[in-house]
Structures are given as C-alpha cells and as structure tokens.
Amino acid sequence: MFRSDSHRSVVSSAAKLLALTAACGVIVCASPVAAAEPGHFGYGTVATPEQIAGWDIDVRGGDGAGLPAGTGSVSKGESVFADQCAACHGTFGEGEGRFPKLAGGKGTLKDDRPELTVGSYWPFAPTLFDYINRAMPMPTPHTLSADDVYALTAYILNLNDIVPGDFVADKDSLPKVKMPNHDSFLWKDPRPDTAARPCMSNCANPADIKITSTAESRNLTPRTTGPLDTMQPK
Ligand code: HEC
Q1: Domains contained in the chain, number
Q2: Which residues does ligand 1 sit against, CB inside 6 Å?
Q3: I need a labelling partner for 97 at 20 to 30 A (CA). Which of 43, 151, 176, 194 fits?
Q4: 96 CB contacts (<8 Å, ≥6 apart)?
Q5: Atom of ligand 1 nearest to the CA of 85
Q6: Quick one: how many helices (H) and strands (E) in the chain?
Q7: How far is the CA of 30 from the centre of ligand 1 (A)?
Q8: 45-54 contacts at long range (C-beta below 8 A, 24 or more positions apart)
Q9: Distance between alpha carbon 208 and the CA centroid of its chain, in Å?
Q10: Are residue 87 and residue 47 in the same domain, yes or no?
C-alpha cells in the first residue's frame, strides 16, 4: 500500500492519509492523556494511575479494604432509593414482581424455600457497598456517586433492622456492622486435606503411601460405587 511506483502514487497517498487518520483515531486522539510511551509488551501505552483507579473499585467484605472516601445517611438513602431502585426492589426492599427482595427473610434459611436477602444471608456490610457500586441500578451501573452508594447501603441495612435510623455509612462505620448471618458461614475450611502442606522436597515415595481411611468409610459421602439413582448415604 505504501509502494511508490509512479502509477500507484495517487492511490498510495490517499492510502497513507487514511492510514494516518486511522492511527490518529486509535492512538493519539482516543487517549490524549496517555503519552506515546510504549506499554509493557512494546505496544499500547502504560496505564496512568487515574486509568487504573477507574478500574480498581473492589471492596473487601471482611475489613472493607478499598472503600472510598464519602459518607451517606439512611434518610438520604431513602430518597435516592425511591428515585433509582424502588421501581424494581419496592419502596421498602420488598421486591416488585420477580425482582429480588433486599430485606426480610430472616429465619427462613432452613426452609424449603429460603429467602436470601441482604439481611437474612449476606455476611458482610462492605460487600453491599461493593455490589451496588459495581452493578446497580441495573440499567445504568457506575452512575452513582460514592456518597449516594454509602447512603443506599445505610438505607438497605436500616430496612433490615441492622443499623438504626441515624446510622451514617462511611469507610470506618461499614466494616464494624455485624451482619446477622455472619456466623453461619464456615470461615475455616474443616476438611483436613485442605490444610495439608504440599511436599516440595524429600517427599514420600508414592509406592510407600498407604490409604488408611476414606471419606466413604468414615460415612462422609454417599456410596459412589453403584448406579447414581441408588446413591444413598450409608
Ligand atoms: C431495572 C431493575 C433494577 C433496578 C432499577 C435496580 N435493581 Fe438492583 N437488582 C436487579 C436485579 C434483576 C438483581 C439481581 C441480579 C442478579 O442476581 O444477577 C438486583 C440485585 C440487587 C442486589 C443484590 C440482591 C441479592 O441479595 O443478591 C442489590 C443489593 C441491589 N440490586 C440494589 C439495588 C440498588 C441500591 C438500586 C438503586 C440504585 C437497584 N438495585 C436498582 C434489578 C434492579
């Protein structure tokens, strides 16, 4: 396309112009902030701290690491919720139609049809901030300010009687909220093999290893030798 033999020169210049325009569109014009510095693999550009911050939004449930600055009250959350969320989740989190309930369901987890809600099921309050911040409102996620997300989090926790009406959510208060179902989760895996250390040197000869007990013999799993439809715990 860039050959310069005379009979193709007109085409060639036009093609060059196009190619330059395209390059401008993709590299320079689309990202005026990033310098032309090559990226890690020799192409693209190195992401700026601002670009990374835009993606780095995760919040850790247990200790709330990653919660941003900002603050929000239950009462402000009530009005944001009415505008942005109630159409699907109901004014009090009761759920419209088939959209999920955000409140209630306490004590139903062992029922035939358990109602899993923020109040009955979720183990961590900071996760509520994280979920709303990344996924809601469903039609237009990533449009809420941190203050609004904090306010919505406070309101939904209040709907579930987990925090009082004067609660203010922020990065310090949310990790301290004790969720009702927190202790029903197993926080340490009780299966012995998950705690086993992998052997990296001077390991036993596989031929010398004897199986001394199995999950089946300890009555931990259903019988696995027969056809599936007759599988019953012993
Ligand atoms: C157009 C309907 C719609 C709107 C508006 C909406 N949501 Fe949702 N929301 C959903 C649906 C559907 C789900 C379930 C998504 C899934 O399970 O993947 C959901 C899930 C949730 C959950 C998780 C529930 C759970 O226990 O798993 C929360 C919390 C939540 N929404 C909060 C909000 C908040 C706060 C707003 C307002 C800012 C909002 N939603 C607006 C439809 C909506």
Answers
A1: 2
A2: 84-85, 87-89, 99-100, 102, 116-118, 128, 131-132, 136-139, 152
A3: 151
A4: 86, 87, 88, 89, 90
A5: 37
A6: 6, 2
A7: 33
A8: none
A9: 45
A10: no
Contact 88, 99 (CB under 8 A): yes
* Residue span of the structural domain in which 25 resides: 6-52
Q: Do 151 and 80 share a structural domain?
A: yes
- Cα gap 105→118, rounded to integer Å: 9
Give me ligand 1 centre to Cα 141, in Å: 10
Give every CB contact of residue 170 below 8 A, 6+ residues apart in sequence: 67, 70, 71, 72, 150
Q: Which of 76, 88, 129 to mutate to test the pocket of ligand 1 (most atoms within 8 A of CB)?
A: 88
- Distance between CA atoms of residues 121 and 118, nearest Å: 6
pLDDT (tens, 9 = 90+) of the chain, 234 residues, equals 333 333 333 334 444 444 444 444 444 444 444 455 677 788 888 889 999 988 999 999 999 999 999 999 999 999 999 999 999 999 999 999 999 999 999 999 999 999 999 999 999 999 999 999 999 999 999 999 999 999 999 999 999 999 999 999 999 999 999 999 999 999 888 887 788 888 899 998 989 988 887 777 776 666 655 555 455 554
